[in-house]
Amino acid sequence: MTDPLILTRRVEGVEHITLNRPHRHNALVPELLRPLRQALEAAAESEAEAVLLRAEGRSFSTGGDLLGFRQHRKNIADYADELVGLLNDCIMALNGLPCPAACAVQGQVTGGSLGFLLACDRVFMSRQASITPFYTMVGFSPDGGWTALLPKLIGRQQTMHWLLTNTRHEAGTCRELGIVHEVVGHDPTAAAGQWIATFCTTRPGARRRVRELLCNDANTLRARLDAERESFVAQIQSAEALEGIDHFLGNN
């Protein structure tokens, strides 16, 4: 029997949600994103005081699994539409939580997995971690909030430069850009837990009001994420993207 791809547990009112596909660097497939969406929706409906999103293994998540795209080459448009649609649902669920959300990051973050960081309220990253887009290297169109959320944090020009040059940004640079809030030399999960503990003694009703006021543009975000999905699906059918998948996987 295989292990579940999403693990959940409640610890003193905090919902811990863990990506559990470490043998593939927690790369995204529908089988992981469906239970992740369910876990986030359940957390929103519960009395959780906070959500802590983390991952098992060496990497937080390396974005959409290229093996999955290659295995679904004959119906790649439908597969990509489902995958990015599920990713968008998870980003929307994180962004719309009635309670604060922290993200603990280790190792690599690539592609659409950046969206998890962008949708959380506080991001803790280990000193050895990094973020790389990889879209133009493979031949994909950006998803996961790279155009829907990131420009609000770092600006349009900075976002475009990062995507077009496929630069790898280390943890310190990510903090300077405002994507990451704390860089730690120890376990980022422990640091995230300490941050959560600082506000769990405050009034929950007031915390929810803060979230409601700060996350009141859901329709605009959904529209921008849908535009990313449509662009991603159109581009992944191109010869450029299909060749890029094979080249990246070493089968060209």
UniProtKB/TrEMBL annotation:
Superkingdom of the source species: Bacteria
Q: Name one Pfam family in it.
A: ECH_1
Family membership:
Belongs to the enoyl-CoA hydratase/isomerase family.
List, alphabetically, the InterPro entries matched: ClpP/crotonase-like_dom_sf, Enoyl-CoA_hydra/iso, Enoyl-CoA_hydra_C, Enoyl-CoA_Hydratase/Isomerase
This protein is called what? Enoyl-CoA hydratase/isomerase family protein
Transmembrane parts of this sequence: none
Q: Say which species the protein is native to.
A: Elongatibacter sediminis
- Quote the Gene3D superfamilies the UniProt record gives: 2-enoyl-CoA Hydratase, Chain A, domain 1, Lyase 2-enoyl-coa Hydratase, Chain A, domain 2
Q: Name one GO molecular function term.
A: catalytic activity
